[in-house]
Each structure stands twice: as C-alpha cells, then as structure tokens.
Design a protein that fits this description.
This protein is mostly helical and about 90 residues long. The chain has five helices and no strands. The chain has a domain of about 55 residues. Helices cover about 45% and strands about 0% of the residues.
C-alpha cells in the first residue's frame, strides 16, 4: 500500500496496514536544510513563494519515513489582504 493510499484510506476510516504517521510542525528549526533556507529568506517570503514553500514542505518527507506532509503555510498573511501590516519576528 502506498503512503498516499494509506493516508487517504485512514482519513476515510478504512482498514490500513498500519497507522499513518506525520509530524506536526514538520519543517522547522531542527532541520539543517530548513535553517539554510531560513538564513536567506524571511518566513513571509517562504510562505509567499510557492517553490520555497514546496521545498520546505517536502524536506521532512524526504528525510523521514512518514506518510504525509504538512503544507508550509500560515493563516496570518490573510491580515495583509485586510490592509494590516504583518511581520514575523
């Protein structure tokens, strides 16, 4: 069973060969690959750039034997669309 099949079946409460695994906050400070990107870009730049978001999302999937990825994103950039300033510090 593929990772994708396992995850989707489990989401539908169907029988799977093992419990799917993913990590909350997969991308982050503990990964050297993430830190290397973070040295060059702000959080907002990473969120707004599809290529960077994709790369950071895939880093833990490539590094660990997990079944699903958490998309690198944040809800707060919606504030900018409302005319508010946003800065991560």
């Amino acid at each position: 069973m593929s990772r994708q099949d396992r995850f989707i079946k489990a989401c539908h409460k169907e029988q799977v060969d093992c419990t799917p695994v993913w990590l909350m906050r997969q991308a982050g400070r503990y990964m050297p690959e993430y830190r290397a990107i973070r040295e060059k870009y702000t959080i907002l730049e990473m969120i707004k750039n599809p290529e960077l978001s994709c790369e950071v999302t895939l880093q833990p999937l490539n590094a660990f034997d997990i079944d699903a990825g958490i998309i690198f994103a944040d809800i707060l950039p919606l504030l900018e669309a409302m005319g508010l300033d946003l800065e991560f510090v």
